[in-house]
Amino acid sequence: MSDNRVKLPNGMELVFAPGCFDTFEGTQEELDDLVKEITESFISGEALTEATSIEDMSDEEIAEILGQMDDDDTSVRTLQ
After folding, report:
1. β-bridge mates for residue 7, sequence order
2. For the chain, domain boundaries
3. What are φ and ψ of residue 28, in 5° steps?
4. Separation of alpha carbons 14 and 37, rounded Å
């Protein structure tokens, strides 16, 4: 992915942080499709309307998510 910034119609900007897909396991085509799907969900507003606020989550749910993030393998993979 060469361009990590997408300007949205509402004036907001969607930014994919460097390395955010380093643990993605799939082809370049699959990654491109994923980025497109994420981008389209923000353009349509679906990402924001379907999001769960951290304020609506229990301490256990937050701890589980943080634990999953901590457990993720952060080694760099080469896309096929």
Report:
1. 13
2. 26-80
3. -60, -40
4. 13
- What's the pTM value of the predicted model, to 2 decimals? 0.64
Say which amino acid occupies 42.
F
* 10-residue mean pLDDT series, the chain (80 residues): 76 89 92 94 90 90 83 51
Neighbouring CB atoms inside 10 A of 64's CB total 12
Nearest-angstrom CA–CA distance, 73 and 65: 14
- Distances in whole angstroms, Cα of residue 58 to Cα of each of 15, 24, 75: 28, 28, 30
- HSE-up of 42 (CA within 13 Å, CB side)? 17
